[in-house]
Amino acid sequence: MLKLGYLGPEGTFSEKAAHIWLHWVRGTSWLGEGRTGIPQLFHELEAGELHQIVVPVENSIEGAVNVTQDYLIRIEDIEILGEISLSIEHYLATSQRIPLSEISAVYSHPQALSQCHEYLQNNLKHASLLQATSTAEAARLVAQNAPGIAAVTSKDAVIKYGLTVLAEKIQDFSDNKTRFWVLGKKEGKEAIPKNNNSSLKTSIVVALPYNRPGSLYEILKGFADANLDLTRIESRPTKKELGEYLFIIDFWGHLQDKTVLDTLTKLKTKAAMLKILGSYPIIT
């Protein structure tokens, strides 16, 4: 049986994304397994202990999940197999109903706490904000402890761990979404969907020639000239020299498209480094 790893425990948004992926790749026997952190997921994928993993890559409020991007850039033989977007709704929950004034601490994943900053500042300014490895882990901690602590968590985790909802949909912006990437090894093509009705996207990493004016413009102009629609451009430090950056670029199209292939071939002559992270379907 093949193993799909996600950020656990049960009840996380990552688990929900994993279930969507498994439904989409019907026909292969998979076992979903939760892990305590994104680094652990990458390490076990690299070691062959997991066949694929589901990891968050970007949130519409807080932006990029840098640890995901950095591991994907660093590890050579891993590629993106698919993308899943989820609407994210956060709930304030406790083990039993208590006044907000009696809550001394709120647990959640750092991204979730940031996504609910305004609500927490306006209603729970007196409470300590404490980090958990996931929103579901926060729910589990609250369920196992005495009243007085709360979790910012998902509706699924509220149900899973038998919590009481004190406030629902407390995220700062109602249209809160997170993108997840499904990753696997390049030589392992287990259960890659054959659905041709999905939109297709390609992601790359580009390093520019050092200190050459107009380098980024030349890279982006190549996409504009080819009429390829960019969906995201993100900079990450090279971790070698202050002021040196890599650029992650997502755009519509697939490597099998001649326009995409020709554009990337030309780009190689202008970039100091080009790494293709994958061409993959968008699952909605």
Descriptive report:
The protein has 284 residues and is an alpha/beta fold. The protein has three domains: 2-86 and 178-185, 3-Layer(aba) Sandwich (D-Maltodextrin-Binding Protein, domain 2); 91-168, 3-Layer(aba) Sandwich (D-Maltodextrin-Binding Protein, domain 2), CATH 3.40.190; 200-283, 2-Layer Sandwich (Alpha-Beta Plaits), CATH 3.30.70.260. It is built from nine helices and 15 strands. It has helices spanning 13-24, 38-46, 66-74, 110-115, 117-123, 135-144, 155-160, 215-225, 258-268; strands spanning 2-7, 30-35, 52-59, 63-64, 78-87, 91-94, 105-108, 128-131, 149-153, 164-168, 177-185, 199-207, 230-237, 245-252, 273-283. Strands 1, 2, 3, 4, 5, 11, 12, 13, 14 and 15 form a ten-stranded mixed β-sheet that branches. The model has no long low-confidence stretch (mean pLDDT 91).
Short description:
The protein has 284 residues and is α/β, with parallel strands linked by helices. It has nine helices and 15 strands.
Features:
D-Maltodextrin-Binding Protein, domain 2, 3 domains, 5-stranded mixed beta sheet, 29% helix, 35% strand
Mind telling me the CATH class of the largest domain? Alpha Beta
Could you estimate the helical fraction of the residues in percent?
Answer: 25-40%
Q: Write the CATH homologous superfamily of the largest domain.
A: Periplasmic binding protein-like II
Low-pLDDT segments, ≥5 res: none
Strand content: 25-35%
Going by helix content, strand content and strand pairing, the class is alpha/beta
The major beta sheet can be summarized as:
10 strands, mixed
Number of domains: 3
Identify the CATH architecture of the largest domain: 3-Layer(aba) Sandwich
